[in-house]
Amino acid sequence: MSEPRGTSEPVLITEAQLSYEEQHAARKRKYMLMMGLRFPCIILAGVFYQTWWLALAFIALSVPLPWVAVLIANDRPPRKAEEVSRYQREATAIEQREHRVIDG
Fold this sequence. Notes:
Blueprint: H1 20-47, H2 52-62, H3 65-74
Helix pairs in contact: 1-2, 1-3
InterPro entries: DUF3099
Pfam family, one: DUF3099
Organism: Amycolatopsis magusensis
């Protein structure tokens, strides 16, 4: 049987998060790409050693690449904020009247 309308909404495939393995593989690809760019930067710095400012720019670019690559590789996407279904009591459920104590 079907549930009453509005009680729970199905997760659409287009809105579903990637699996952990897919997220990890994507982060690994980014890491490998960024670390792969470091070696060509060092080679280009050697090629352009006579133009000191260009060689220095390639070296300066290659120095923070490992740090940035590790940051990106370890960064997971933020968790999706989902509305939690919780039981809500009404404020009028607690008695509001005065209780008298009879001294006996």
